[in-house]
Amino acid sequence: MAKITRLGLLLAVGLLSGCVNPYPQPIVTVSEDDAVIKDGNVRKLNPAWQKGKSTVGLNAPVNLRDFRLNVEIYHNLYSTQHRDLVNTLNTADGATVLGGLWGVAGALTGTKAWMYQGAGLAGTSAIYTDHYQIKVQSENYFKASEAMRCMYSAVAGMPDGRELSAAGLRTANIAIDDVTAKLSRVQRDVLLAEPDFNRLKKALLLTEPAAANFVAKQSYTADQVDSDILPKLEKCVSEF
């Protein structure tokens, strides 16, 4: 009995430790100083970057290269958080299964202490994962990471040297802000993010049916870059 109790306490400590946090997760943020290194005037992804707790944020992009870097960083950030929450969920599921096994062993052996210990452990794991909606939180981060990946894909095919107009760049930056703001809202309220179908319908109408080839894009004006990229970004945002 003492050994079982100690095992239960150790598992409970593991569930409540920093590695597996049962409490509602704060919205993860990213710092320019942590995620970006400078090569002259060029911003590049810091290969040693890890998600942090800074509220400084990333610098606003001044060109398509910067925009591509920002959405890549956000994609990495949200993908990492999604994996961490899935690990939390898997650990809690393991505790539920272990608790169930203890309960079964208690029933088979007639040892009531095992039955109570197993029920308590399984119940505690289920309570905190249900109460704090770890599945919802992890799914929201997954959806946000997919929105950022979608935006990266929207600009990845544009040749170097082609740029959005100043107004187009502001619109592209707003697209990032729309995703981060919606993620913050649904995570705060613990709601599953759903697409904005009215916005998506409008975005689909604006998206060109056939993409121009790479050679044609090399001669694009800023207005043509806007026409190519901005509807795709709008589609990515409205699908989140």
Q: How would you characterize this protein structure?
A:
By secondary structure, this protein is mainly α. The chain has one domain. 68% of the residues lie in helices and 3% in strands. The chain is built from 9 helices and 2 strands, in the order H-H-E-E-H-H-H-H-H-H-H. It has helices spanning 2-16, 32-35, 64-109, 112-131, 134-156, 166-189, 197-206, 214-217, 222-239, and strands spanning 36-39, 42-45. Strands 1-2 form a two-stranded antiparallel ribbon. A hairpin with a 2-residue loop joins strand 1 and strand 2. Helix 1 (2-16) packs parallel to helix 4 (112-131) and helix 5 runs antiparallel to helix 9. The protein starts with a helix and ends with a helix.
Strand composition percent = under 5%
The major β-sheet equals: 2 strands, antiparallel
Number of domains: 1
Shape: globular
Strand order of the largest sheet: 1-2
Structural class, by secondary structure, is: mainly alpha
Computed CA radius of gyration, to the nearest angstrom = 23 Å
Measure the end-to-end span. Answer: 50 Å
Order of helices and strands: HHEEHHHHHHH
How many separate helices?
9
Mean pLDDT: 79
User: What fraction, in percent, of the residue positions are helical?
Assistant: 55-70%
According to DSSP, the number of beta strands is: 2
Query: Low-confidence runs (pLDDT<50, min 5 residues)?
Result: 15-23, 94-102
Key words describing this protein structure:
240 residues, mainly alpha, 68% helix
